[in-house]
Design brief:
The chain is of the alpha+beta class. It is 43% helix and 29% strand. The chain is built from 8 helices and 8 strands, in the order αββααββββββααααα. Helix 1 runs parallel beside helix 7, helix 5 packs across helix 7 and helix 7 runs antiparallel to helix 8. The protein starts with a helix and ends with a helix.
Length: 212
């Protein structure tokens, strides 16, 4: 379990707000360092073949102004692409998704390492946020960035392994640690302790398929 705990601690998490055209948006920001050169990380987050190996299959016209679709998940428009530094896209899911954007920023560190920042900005329904808080999207992104770490290290999970990993001891430990860390980030952003604890429990229960 020490590797899982180390992975949880390698991620910096921050919760905040931002004004967008449609009102006040919620923000979650993740930051971690990868032991890979920036060109390799950029290729891993923009190449359809590689995205499918650590995240999920993606289709569409993958260029600025083009539209993409992740299999069984979000889709949208590619809004900005500055190789190898920044990728910004709309992140839309469901019949009435509202405002939702994701931006990935890469910075080289010591030549052979790369700092990745992922920021998700969305106008979330109040009832959804009240139930789950930032962990609803935060845990999902934690899992994605852990998959990227395994991929960059040549240790990616097979499709079958990835489908059931959340039921394994390591998977449950990772989800629990991630959910608790997002609860701490939520409290640090100003949420009261009771709300942070309640939403953390609901998020962990959702991802593990257990009762809160």
């Amino acid at each position: 379990m020490s590797e899982i705990a180390d992975e949880i601690n390698r991620l910096h998490r921050r919760v905040g707000t931002r004004q967008v055209e449609t009102g006040e948006a919620r923000t979650v920001l993740l930051r971690r360092t990868y032991d890979a050169e920036i060109a390799d990380v950029w290729d891993a987050v923009t190449s359809p073949e590689r995205i499918a190996r650590w995240f999920m299959p993606v289709s569409g016209e993958l260029k600025v102004g083009g539209r993409y679709q992740l299999e069984g998940n979000a889709g949208g428009e590619i809004l900005e692409c500055v190789e190898p530094e920044r990728l910004r896209l709309s992140w839309l899911f469901g019949p009435d998704p509202g405002f939702s954007e994701v931006e990935v920023r890469l910075t080289p560190e010591d030549g052979e390492r790369t700092v990745l920042e992922l920021e998700h900005v969305s106008v979330a329904p109040e009832e959804f946020w009240d139930q789950f808080g930032p962990g609803a999207v935060g845990v999902g992104w934690d899992l994605g960035l852990y998959g990227l770490r395994l991929h960059l290290a040549g240790r990616g999970l097979s499709k079958e392994e990835a489908a059931t990993w959340h039921t394994t001891p390591d998977g449950r430990a990772y989800i629990t640690g991630s959910g608790e860390s997002w609860g701490e980030a939520y409290a640090a952003s100003g949420a009261d302790a009771g709300t942070a604890a309640r939403t953390t429990a609901a998020t962990i229960a959702f991802y593990t398929g257990t009762e809160a």
